[in-house]
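Write out this protein's structure.
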Amino acid sequence: GLRQRVAIARAILHAPAVLLLDEPTSGLDPAAAKDVRAIVTNLARDGAAALVCTHNLAEAEALAGRIGIVKTRLLGLDTPYGLGVRPGGVTLEDVYLALTGEA
């Protein structure tokens, strides 16, 4: 967890225009994961682009303006709403399972 936090701190130290994050909350406790999500949200609000690769679909749904669903190839790319996510109804997990044929 501490290594993950240091890596993220190093990545954002110079306020990059583009930030690439691979499983940024993996191995972090809930409080640290919340901090990372806030950092990503704030960077995006300030105009940076953040590309986050994650298996945590709830996290992706909460963070992303656009989502790409990949399984061997690109299966979908749109806003969560454009992919079919509906608050209180269809989740990103539901969309993922339908697109990958794993439903």
